[in-house]
C-alpha cells in the first residue's frame, strides 16, 4: 500500500477539473500536439509496427525469465563496482535511499525526473531527515516550487500557464517581476539549478531500462539534468521498478527506436544516458558510489496476476494523450501518482483494487490507449477485469450490484424483457414530449441533465416483426 | 439465396425499431431471406463491461442457443457484433456451448460489413440531405478493425456528398454505463464530438452503433441543433 | 530492506504460477558482435558519403549546426570561426590525442584560451579546479565515437582523457569526427554496443556512454520549445574528410 485511498469521489474531482477553463485548453492543446507528433513520427517510420511487436515480445520474454535476468543484472552491476538494493515496499525503498543519504553525509540531492520516486513519496522523506531534494526537470521543478504533484507522466506542469510559472518563480526564487516568457523562465531555471547540480552531494534518478547483460542503467531525457545528476554529485542512486530490466543491448536499441516517438514524436530524446556503475579508476568525473534500488511495491504480485501486461509499460504517456477521459479531466483528478489509462492499472497494482473502485470506471473502453501503446498493452481488457474484481470483492456499492443483478435477470428471460419494455412505456408517459424525454427523476437524471433520451418505442422491433 | 438471421440488439429493439425495419426491407430487396430468431434480449455487453462476467456468460449462452444454426447473423451495432465475435468464445470456453459460440462468432457480421464484405454491395441511393460525415464507433473501428465498409457505402451513395469528420475516430463519450457514472465527463467528451461535427460542415452524422447515436442525438436535441445523427441503415435506400 | 534471496525468491514463486501470456523471445543477438561490427564498418566505408548526407540532414533537423573540413589541420580554423561567432574566449577540450589534432596553438593565436582536459586523474583539489573551469567555459570540444545517420545522434563513450562534462556544462558543444564514426541506424548502434561489451573493456574505458541528439531542450512551459535548459544550447558537428589519428 503506497498511497491512502482517496475519500472524495472521482466524480467530484472530475467535475472540478472540468470547470477549470485554462486546464481544459492546455490539455486540448498539449494532447492534440502530442497525438499529431506521434502520428507523424510513426507515419515516417515503416519499421514501426514490426518494432512495436518486437518490443512487446521482449517485455513478455523478459517476464518469463525475470529472475534470471535480474540476477544477471545484479551480478553485472556489482562487478562494475555498484551496489544493488532490494525494496519490497515503498517504505523499504525510502529507507534504503535515506540510509545512503545519511551514510554519505548528503545535505542536498538533485533529482532527475522519476515517477518511481514520486510513487514512493521520496521527497518528503528526504526533507524530513534534513536532505533537501531539488527537482531539476523543468516541469518537476515548477511543480515542486508550487507544492503540487505532476499532472502528466512526461509533461508534469502542463496544467500551468506561463503567467503562473512567472509568478511562481518571481515569488519563490525572490526574483520579482519575471516576464511570462518561457525563454526567460527557462534561463532562470538553468541558472538556479546549475548551482544545485554543482553543489549537490547526491544525484537521484529513475531508470527507463536496465540492461542485464552489461549492468547498464539507461536514462532517457531531454534537458541534460539526467546527465548532470549522474556525473556531478559523488553518489548516484537510481530507483527502478523490477519490470524495467531488459536482456541485452540489442534489445535496448529496439526500445530506443520506439520510446521517444511514442512519447513526443522525437526520433530520440536529446540525451540517452547509459550508466555503468561508479566512475572507473582512470575517469576524471562520475560518482564514487552507484546504487540501484530495485522496487517491488506490488509489481511482483502481478507476474501471475491480472495486471501482468501492465508490467510492459514504458511510461511514455501515449495512452494519456489519446484518452478521451484524460483529455477532459487531466492528471490531478485521477488522484494518485500515475494518471491516465495505464495510471488506473498502476494504481490498482500499487494500492490494491479498493483504490480503483471508481477509477476502474473512468473509461469509456474506447480502446484508443491500446492502439497508441508502443508495446500494445490491452488496457481496456484489464480495466474490465478490475471492474470484475471490484464487484467480486464487494468494493462496488451494494445498490449498484443489485441493479446489475436485476438487469441480468431481465436479460435472461424474454418474458421479463418484454415486461420491462411495457413498464418503461408506462413509466415514461409523463415525461415524453415529441418522442423524446428531457428530464427524468432519480438516477436517470444523470443522463437527462445534459442530453435528451429517446422514448421506448410504442412497439418494439420484435413486436412489429410479424408485419414486416 | 442468402439467408441471414437478424440480431436486433436491445437498444434498437426498444428505441430504434425503425432502424431494424429499414435493415429488413433493404436486405430483402437485395435478395436476402431475413429471419428473426425469437426471444432475443441483449448480447450482454452492459453486464460484461461492468465486470459481471458470470451474468454476461449466462446471457451469452442464451444468445448462442437462440442463433444456433444460423448461416449468417447481421447486427446493426458495432459494439454488439464485437461482443459476440470477440468475447463470446472466451466467456463460454469449456462449456457445452463453446463450439456453438465459436461458430456464432465466425458467422456474425456488423451491418455494413455484411453489405460490403458478404454481399459485395456498395451502391445505394439516399434521400438524406448531406453533406454526411461518418463517426467511427470505437468497437467497430478498434474492436473489429473496421473503418472501411461504412465509408465505402457512403462513398458509393448517389444523391449526396460526404465530408470528413475531424476526430472521427474519437470516442463520443457513451461507453455504456460510463455515460451515467461520470455524466459530466461523458458530456464533455460529447461536446468535443459535437464541436467537431459542426466544424465539419456536415448536416448529418452517420454511425453504425445505437449507443453512439443515443449519445450524439441526445446532445444535438438538447442543444436544439438542426444537425442530425442517423444510423447508416437510415441513410441507405 | 529485503535480501536478494528473499526478493528473487518471491519473483520465482510468482513465476511458477503462470506460463505467461504468449510465446516470446528477446532479440536475437549477434554471435560474434566484434566481427559483425568489423564487417559492418567495411560495408559502411563504401557508402559513407550517403550516410554522411543523411546524418547531416537529421542533425540539422534537431537544430545541430554542421561543418565539414578536408583535413585535421583545417579543424582549428573552423573552431576559431565558431568561437568568434559566439564571442567565446575560454574553451575546454579533450586532449589532442583524443581529438586527433592539436587545437590550442591556432586558437591561442586567435585569442581563445584552450584548457585541455587531463588524461590521468589528478588529486581532488585539481579535479575541483578543472570542474570549475569546465563550468565557466564558453564552449567544449570533444570527439565522437559514433554519428548515427537515422537520428542525427552523436555517441560519446567516456574514458580517460574523454571526460563527460566537456559536452555537458559549457553552453556550446563541438564534436569532431570522421567517417569511421558513421553508422546508419539505431540497429547498428545496437551491434556496436554489443561489440564494445564483448570481453573485458579496455582499461581507459569510463562508466558512461552518452547519446546526444541536438541541443538540450524542454517544452514544459505551455509546450513552448526552448533550448539550452541544463545542457548546451548549441551543438556543432565538424566532419573531417581525412581519417583522424585518435585512439579508436
Using brief descriptors, characterize the structure shown.
heterotrimer; A: 468 residues; alpha/beta; Rossmann fold; 3 domains; six-stranded parallel beta sheet; four-stranded mixed beta sheet; 11% strand; B: 237 residues; 2 domains; four-stranded parallel beta sheet; three-stranded parallel beta sheet; 9 strands; globular
Please, could you describe this protein's structure?
The complex is a heterotrimer of chains A (468), B (237) and C (248). With 468 residues, chain A is α/β, with parallel strands linked by helices. Chain A has three domains: 1-44 and 318-396, no CATH class; 48-297, Rossmann fold (3-Layer(aba) Sandwich); 401-467, no CATH class. Chain A is built from 21 helices and 13 strands. Chain A has a six-stranded parallel beta sheet with strand order 1-10-7-4-2-3, sandwiched between helices. A four-stranded mixed beta sheet of chain A has the order 8-5-6-9, sandwiched between helices. In chain A, strands 11-12-13 form a three-stranded antiparallel beta sheet, with no helix packed on it. Chain A is globular and about 90 Å long. Chain A starts with 9 loop residues before the first helix and ends with a helix. The mean pLDDT of chain A is 95. Chain B has two domains: 2-117, 3-Layer(aba) Sandwich (Rossmann fold); 122-235, Rossmann fold (3-Layer(aba) Sandwich), CATH 3.40.50. Chain B has 13 helices and nine strands. Chain B has a four-stranded parallel beta sheet with strand order 2-1-3-4. In chain B, helix 5 packs antiparallel against helix 6 and helix 11 crosses helix 12 (210-222). The longest helix of chain B is centred in the last third of the chain and has 18 residues, at 183-200. Chain B is globular. Chain B starts with a strand and ends with a helix. The model of chain B has no long low-confidence stretch (mean pLDDT 97). Chain C has a single domain (31-240), classed as NagB/RpiA/CoA transferase-like (Rossmann fold), CATH 3.40.50.10420. Chain C is built from eight helices and twelve strands. Chain C has helices at residues 4-16, 33-46, 48-61, 75-86, 96-99, 104-109, 124-136, 186-196; strands at 65-69, 90-93, 113-116, 139-143, 146-148, 153-159, 172-178, 182-183, 205-212, 217-218, 226-227, 234-240. Chain C has a six-stranded parallel beta sheet with strand order 1-12-7-4-2-3, sandwiched between helices. In chain C, strands 8-5-6-9 form a four-stranded mixed beta sheet. In chain C, a hairpin with a 4-residue loop joins strand 5 and strand 6. The longest helix of chain C has 14 residues, at 33-46. The mean pLDDT of chain C is 96. The chains are: A alpha/beta (468), B alpha/beta (237), C alpha/beta (248). Chains A and C meet through helix 2, helix 3, helix 4, strand 1 and helix 5 of A and helix 1, helix 7, strand 6, helix 8 and strand 9 of C. Strand 9 of chain A pairs antiparallel with strand 9 of chain C, so a sheet runs across the interface.
Amino acid at each position: 500500500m503506497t498511497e491512502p485511498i482517496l475519500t472524495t469521489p472521482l466524480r467530484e474531482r472530475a467535475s472540478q477539473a472540468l470547470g477549470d477553463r485554462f486546464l481544459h485548453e492546455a490539455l486540448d492543446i498539449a494532447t492534440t500536439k502530442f497525438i499529431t507528433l506521434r502520428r507523424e513520427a510513426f507515419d515516417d517510420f515503416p519499421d514501426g509496427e514490426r518494432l512495436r511487436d518486437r518490443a512487446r515480445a521482449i517485455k513478455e520474454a523478459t517476464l518469463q525469465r525475470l529472475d534470471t535476468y535480474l540476477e544477471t543484472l545484479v551480478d553485472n552491476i556489482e562487478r562494475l563496482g555498484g551496489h544493488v538494493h532490494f525494496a519490497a515496499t515503498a517504505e523499504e525503498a525510502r529507507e534504503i535511499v535515506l540510509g545512503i543519504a545519511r551514510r554519505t553525509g548528503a545535505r542536498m540531492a538533485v533529482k532527475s525526473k522519476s515517477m518511481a520516486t514520486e510513487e514512493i513519496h521520496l521527497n518528503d522523506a528526504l526533507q524530513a531527515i534534513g536532505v533537501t531534494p531539488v527537482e531539476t526537470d523543468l516541469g518537476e521543478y515548477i511543480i515542486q516550487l508550487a507544492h503540487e504533484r505532476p499532472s502528466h507522466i512526461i509533461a508534469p506542469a502542463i496544467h500551468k500557464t506561463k503567467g503562473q510559472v512567472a509568478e511562481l518563480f518571481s515569488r519563490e526564487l525572490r526574483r520579482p517581476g519575471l516576464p511570462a516568457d518561457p525563454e526567460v523562465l527557462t534561463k532562470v531555471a538553468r541558472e538556479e539549478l546549475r548551482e544545485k547540480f554543482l553543489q549537490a552531494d547526491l544525484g537521484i534518478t529513475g531508470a527507463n531500462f536496465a540492461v542485464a547483460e552489461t549492468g547498464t542503467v539507461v536514462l532517457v531525457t531531454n534537458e541534460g539534468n539526467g546527465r548532470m545528476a549522474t556525473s556531478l554529485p559523488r553518489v548516484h542512486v537510481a530507483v527502478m521498478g523490477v519490470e524495467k530490466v531488459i536482456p541485452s543491448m540489442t534489445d535496448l536499441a529496439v526500445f530506443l527506436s520506439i520510446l521517444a516517438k511514442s512519447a513526443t514524436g522525437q526520433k530520440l530524446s536529446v540525451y540517452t544516458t547509459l550508466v555503468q556503475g561508479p566512475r572507473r579508476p582512470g575517469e576524471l568525473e562520475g560518482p564514487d558510489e552507484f546504487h540501484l534500488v530495485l522496487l517491488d511495491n506490488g509489481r511482483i504480485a502481478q507476474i501471475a496476476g491480472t495486471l501482468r501486461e501492465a508490467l510492459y509499460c514504458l511510461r511514455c504517456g501515449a495512452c494519456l494523450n489519446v484518452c478521451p477521459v484524460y483529455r477532459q479531466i487531466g492528471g490531478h483528478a485521477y488522484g494518485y501518482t500515475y494518471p491516465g489509462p495505464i495510471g488506473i492499472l498502476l494504481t490498482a497494482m500499487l494500492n490494491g483494487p479498493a483504490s480503483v473502485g471508481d477509477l476502474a470506471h473512468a473509461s469509456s473502453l474506447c480502446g484508443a490507449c491500446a492502439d497508441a501503446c508502443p508495446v500494445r498493452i490491452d488496457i481496456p481488457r484489464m480495466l474490465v477485469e478490475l471492474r470484475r474484481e471490484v464487484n467480486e470483492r464487494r468494493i462496488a456499492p451494494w445498490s449498484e450490484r443489485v441493479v446489475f443483478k436485476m438487469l441480468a435477470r431481465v436479460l435472461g428471460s424474454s418474458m421479463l424483457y418484454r415486461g420491462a419494455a411495457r413498464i418503461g412505456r408506462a413509466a415514461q408517459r409523463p415525461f415524453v414530449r415529441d418522442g423524446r424525454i428531457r428530464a427524468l427523476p432519480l438516477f436517470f437524471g444523470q443522463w437527462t441533465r445534459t442530453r435528451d433520451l429517446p422514448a421506448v418505442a410504442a412497439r418494439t422491433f420484435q413486436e412489429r416483426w410479424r408485419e414486416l | 439465396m442468402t439467408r441471414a438471421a437478424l440480431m436486433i440488439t436491445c437498444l434498437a429493439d426498444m428505441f430504434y425499431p425503425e432502424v431494424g425495419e429499414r435493415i429488413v426491407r433493404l436486405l430483402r430487396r437485395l435478395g436476402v431471406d431475413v429471419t428473426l430468431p425469437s426471444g432475443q434480449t441483449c448480447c450482454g455487453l452492459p453486464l460484461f463491461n461492468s465486470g459481471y462476467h458470470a451474468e454476461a456468460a449466462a446471457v451469452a449462452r442464451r444468445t448462442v442457443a437462440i442463433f444456433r444454426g444460423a448461416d449468417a447473423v447481421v447486427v446493426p451495432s458495432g459494439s454488439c457484433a464485437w461482443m459476440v465475435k470477440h468475447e463470446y468464445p472466451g466467456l463460454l470456453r469449456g462449456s457445452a456451448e463453446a463450439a456453438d459460440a465459436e461458430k456464432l462468432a465466425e458467422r456474425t457480421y456488423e451491418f455494413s460489413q455484411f453489405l460490403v464484405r458478404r454481399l459485395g454491395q456498395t451502391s445505394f441511393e439516399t434521400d438524406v440531405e448531406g453533406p454526411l460525415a461518418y463517426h467511427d464507433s470505437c468497437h467497430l473501428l478498434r474492436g473489429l478493425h473496421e473503418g472501411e465498409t461504412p465509408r465505402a457505402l457512403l462513398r458509393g451513395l448517389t444523391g449526396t456528398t460526404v465530408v470528413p469528420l475531424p476526430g472521427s475516430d474519437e470516442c463520443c463519450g457513451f461507453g455504456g454505463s460510463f455515460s451515467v457514472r461520470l455524466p459530466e465527463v461523458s458530456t464533455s467528451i460529447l461536446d468535443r464530438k459535437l464541436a467537431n461535427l459542426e466544424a465539419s460542415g456536415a448536416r448529418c452524422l452517420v454511425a453504425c452503433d445505437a449507443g453512439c447515436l443515443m449519445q450524439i442525438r441526445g446532445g444535438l436535441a438538447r442543444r436544439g441543433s438542426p444537425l442530425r445523427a442517423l444510423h447508416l441503415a437510415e441513410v441507405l435506400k | 530492506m529485503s535480501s536478494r534471496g528473499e526478493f528473487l525468491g518471491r519473483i520465482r514463486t510468482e513465476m511458477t504460477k503462470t506460463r505467461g501470456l504468449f510465446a516470446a523471445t528477446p532479440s536475437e543477438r549477434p554471435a560474434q558482435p566484434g566481427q559483425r561490427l568489423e564487417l559492418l564498418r567495411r560495408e559502411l566505408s563504401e557508402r559513407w558519403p550517403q550516410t554522411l548526407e543523411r546524418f547531416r540532414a537529421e542533425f540539422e533537423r534537431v537544430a545541430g549546426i554542421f561543418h565539414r573540413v578536408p583535413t585535421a589541420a583545417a579543424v582549428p580554423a573552423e573552431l576559431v570561426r565558431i568561437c568568434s561567432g559566439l564571442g567565446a574566449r575560454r574553451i575546454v577540450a579533450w586532449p589532442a590525442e583524443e581529438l586527433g589534432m592539436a587545437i590550442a596553438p591556432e586558437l591561442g593565436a586567435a585569442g581563445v584560451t584552450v584548457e585541455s582536459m587531463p588524461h590521468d586523474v589528478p588529486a581532488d583539489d585539481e579535479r575541483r579546479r578543472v570542474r570549475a573551469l569546465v563550468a565557466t567555459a564558453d564552449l567544449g570540444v570533444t570527439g565522437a565515437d559514433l554519428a548515427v545517420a537515422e537520428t542525427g545522434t552523436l555517441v560519446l563513450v567516456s574514458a580517460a582523457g574523454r571526460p563527460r562534462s566537456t559536452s555537458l556544462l559549457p553552453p556550446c558543444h563541438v564534436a569532431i569526427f570522421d567517417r569511421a564514426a558513421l553508422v546508419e541506424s539505431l540497429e547498428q548502434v545496437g551491434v556496436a554496443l554489443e561489440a564494445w561489451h564483448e570481453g573485458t573493456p579496455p582499461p581507459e574505458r569510463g562508466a558512461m556512454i552518452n547519446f546526444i541528439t541536438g541541443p538540450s531542450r524542454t517544452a514544459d512551459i505551455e509546450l513552448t520549445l526552448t533550448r539550452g535548459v541544463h545542457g548546451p544550447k548549441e551543438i556543432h558537428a565538424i566532419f573531417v574528410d581525412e581519417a583522424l589519428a585518435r585512439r579508436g
